[in-house]
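Handout, page 2. Input:
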Amino acid sequence: MKVLQRALVVSLTRTIRGNPAEVRFGIEDGLPTECVANLFEINSVRLESLGRLVAVVKPHRWEEVKRALLFATGFEDWLDA
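Output:
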């Protein structure tokens, strides 16, 4: 069985633009300050290049991530499908 060698990561930034491709996170999510995950900035990186874990998306937040991802990838018509 092959083991994945890469992971998808999303950039976190303190620059909050308020666009639908952003998901806000903050202290309640385990981060030191308010920021956004910018779903326009999805990258595939080698697992060996990853540093320490910064945060984990809590299950109740995944709907927000899904909406931002669909918007960022041009599938906003699927939002309520």
